[in-house]
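Students often ask what a 'structure token' actually looks like in practice. Rather than answer in the abstract, let us consider CRAL-TRIO domain-containing protein, a protein of 321 residues. Its sequence is given first.
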Amino acid sequence: MSAFLSGLLGRKSAITEDTAVVEKPAVVYDFIPRLEPSPNMPVEHTPEATPEEQQAIDLVNMQRAKLLTDLPAEPTDDGLLFDAPAWLTDTRILIYLRACKGDPQQAIARLRGTLEWHSTYRPHAITPASMRAEGATGKMYINGYDQGGRPLLYMFPHLENTSDATQHLRYIVFTMEQAIRSMPPGVTKLTIVIDASQFSPLARSVPLSTAREFLNVLEKHYPDRLGKALVLSPPAYFVVFYRIVAPFIDPVTKSKIAFVDVKGEKGKGRRDGDWVDVRELVDPGMLQLEAGGDWTYKYSQDQYWPVLERMYRAVTASAKV
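Now compare that with the structural description of the same chain:
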């Protein structure tokens, strides 16, 4: 009590002198995001096409003219057009073939559907300026890479700040396009890092209808893009719920989902399994503090958005009318 009163009165006491508190040094935050791969970054390339897959790619390419003919007309008032021939690469064909378990006809149908979707939904024309409100709180953004060179997509559901379902979906698509732009050559997947530590059924979150539409868009138009989904510090009831629905999840997708005990010992030293050690998958210096890393990055839209806009301008410059 004497120390408390002395502090209020601005006087020192014997107790405060004998029991000095050692303060931790203040954290110096880094506000500069990492949206582009470094030249010497280790990369796990997507496996090249097998001879059988190459034959299937050739079969799809035989239908190339048909795939690119009579696509829906785009508006030209914003000066941006979808470059369908440039989009339809052998790498992208291979992604769709693998998503269709090697069936060329299924891949052709899905590729055509995505080509039409690009012409009508126009993800290439979703600008950073139009998404600024969605990105204000840092609820979702690309930052850094895992040990395979896959971009890290951070999601913080508790930072949800808007209620427009249309804009929610557009922001998800916008972020997926940014992730693809951030991929090093030879990399076709990303790693999602989801902070579930503050998850609550009563918390403000994306509506179920939007979540369903999001999953529908991912399945149809961004197939085989998930490298790993890391769920950080999930509450016990979240894990129980997941185990109930897990049998209904596609086995391939299920194998990519793992929990991370950021402050505990579960999964320590493991790269695979229900619980993993995130530091075995992402270099600690490339991983944000709240995800269990050493990088003192702190999201600031004022710092993040200019980098995002520069990258967007560089990519879309060639798509101008």
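One point worth highlighting: The longest strand covers residues 226-232. Ask yourself how you might have guessed this from the sequence alone, and why that guess would often be unreliable.
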